[in-house]
Amino acid sequence: MPSPALDQDLADRLRGKFLVFDGPDGSGKSTQLNRFIEAAEAADLTVCEVREPGGTHIGEEIRKVLLDAKHEQSHPMDLRCEMLLFMASRAQLIAQRVEPAIKRGELVIADRFISSTLAYQGSAGGLPIPDILAVGRVALGKYWPNLVVVFDVDAQTAQLRMNPLLRGKEFDASKDRIESKGEAFHRRVRQGYLEQAQQDPHRYLVIDATREPDPIYEDLIAGISGKL
Ligand code: TYD
Question: 1: pLDDT confidence band, cut at 50, 70 and 90?
């Protein structure tokens, strides 16, 4: 569906800003992200789009280690190792992509960022939030996002969106190591995002993502415009 261009006032406010699109697996954030980027580019913004984990050559190598489901049984990954790898990939991403783009006045849009680590390895995994934030301060330096958009969706809807054929089944071989972690884990992930947003309401925008794409997109534009 065509994406209306952003109005000029909003486009001007987005220059040199850093937005994160985040949410549980199956939240539909990628659809919204693509649509928003199309609209931003139509309004003459230069967009630097990055995805996590990955986004750089080194980051993509780290991503393979992180998401590889094959060795989970024989070589389970320690949770602190997992958190540090996500953060290492992020440090590289900031140095190589985010910092230069912001300096050029581009709009940086990240598909996941430290908010994912806080939700997955922190709230759901069990690592203390202050520890993650401490490592985050080292990895991010001054490049914290201006706004984190959380696409909020309940675990059941998310599960079905990820794989409509999954109804009633326990294991889905197409999922990566983290997606395979079960419903209780994903409920805590969702809760984690909502807690982050409660604690930092100026920097977070929560959108009800259980609906159809059009109303979600309308809320997204109104919300970004209101927060920035
Ligand atoms: P990916 O295939 O990129 O998922 P999505 O398309 O949903 O973004 O896989 C990323 C997975 O890694 C996803 O399950 C979320 C998880 N993740 C963490 O656990 N911690 C993190 O810090 C990040 C960035 C991602």
Answer: low
Cα of 24 to ligand 1 centre, how many Å?
A: 9
Phi/psi region, residue 110 (left: phi>0; alpha: psi -120 to 50; beta: rest), is beta
Ligand 1 neighbour 116 (Cβ under 6 A): yes
C-beta separation of 39 from 99 below 8 A: no
Burial class (CB in 10 A: 0-12, 13-18, 19+), 76: exposed
* Contact call for residues 70 and 61 (beta carbons, < 8 A): no
Sheet arrangement for strand 18-22 = 47-51, 107-111, 18-22, 147-152, 204-208
C-beta 22 within 6 A of ligand 1: no
pTM of the model: 0.92
Tokens of 4: 């209306």
Q: What is the dihedral of CA 81, 110, 194, 157, to 10 degrees?
A: -100
With 90 as the cut, is the pLDDT of residue 5 above it? no
Ligand 1: centre distance to CA 112 (Å)? 7
